Amino acid sequence: MRDRGNPDNWEGILLLQKPVGLTSHDVVARLRRCLGIRKIGHAGTLDPMASGLLIILVGRATKASAYFSSKDKVYEGIFRLGVTTETQDSDGQVLEAKEIPKFSTEELRAALAVFGGDQYQLPPMYSAKKIHGKPLYKMARKGLEIEREPRFIHVYIFDLVSYDPPELSFRLKCSKGTYVRTLAHDLGQHLGCGAHLSQLCRIQSGDFDLSAAWPLEELEQMPFRELNRCLIPLREALPLAP
C-alpha cells in the first residue's frame, strides 16, 4: 500500500495527458480516488473522443479555474470529409453522406482561411452548455432543438497539415470556448460535401504544453510523495501582481 502522506495542504497544477474515451469529469474522479483529495477540478473540458492536455487544479488552485480556462488553445486533429453526423464528431450517428469533390490543397487552404479571425459561432446542441440550467445535450437526446446565442471566438491559426481523402489533418490555434467540431461541421457545409471531427488532440493551453504532461495511468501508479512533486506551484503559474 502506498504511503499516502498528508495531502490536505496540497495545492498546485497538474498537467495531465487525457486519453480517448474518458470525460474530463471521469479523469477528475479517478484522481480524487488516487490522491484522496476532494478539492480537484480542471480548466478546459475535453470531449470523450478527444485526447491531450488537461490542466488539473488541486486544492486552492481550483479558485484560479476561470483564469486558466480563459487561455488560448492549440489543437491538432483530423476532419473526415463527406460525412455529417448528429454530434458533429465521430461519436454521433451519421445524418448524411456525400461524394467528395476533387479538392486541391490550395482550395482546402483557402476554405480554412475563411474561418480565421473574429467570428460568432453557434454552440452545438450536443454540448455541455447550459440554457435555463439544463445542458443542451440532454435536450438534444430528446430530439429537441433549442434556440441559443452565438458566442464570440477568435481563430488565430487554422492550417492544413495534410490531405489524404477523405481525411484532412489540421492545426488550430483559437480562443477559449471554440467548438472544434463545429468548425468541422461548418467547413463541411462551406465545401458542400459535409464533414465531421474524427480525431482531436489538445497540445497547448496558454503557456502549458502537452510535452510536459503526465499520462493518467502513470500518475495512478506513481509513489505518493513523487506524485506531489509533479504539482506546479500556483505562484509559478500565475502572473506576478504589479
Name of the CATH homologous superfamily of the largest domain: Pseudouridine synthase
Using the coordinates above, name the CATH class of the largest domain: Alpha Beta
In CATH terms, what is the fold-level topology of the largest domain? Pseudouridine synthase
Put simply, the count of helices is 8
Shape: globular
Structural class comes to alpha+beta
**Major sheet: size, sense and barrel closure?**
10 strands, mixed
Mean pLDDT: 89
Give the N-terminus to C-terminus distance in angstroms.
46 Å
Compute the number of structural domains. Answer: 2
Overall CATH architecture of the largest domain: 2-Layer Sandwich
How big is the Rg?
19 Å
Oligomer: single chain
Strands, count: 14
Compact summary:
The chain has helices at residues 24-35, 65-69, 105-113, 136-140, 180-191, 216-221, 224-228, 234-237, and strands spanning 12-18, 40-43, 51-58, 73-81, 83-85, 94-97, 117-121, 130-131, 134-135, 151-164, 167-174, 195-205, 208-209, 214-215. The protein has 242 residues and is an alpha+beta fold.
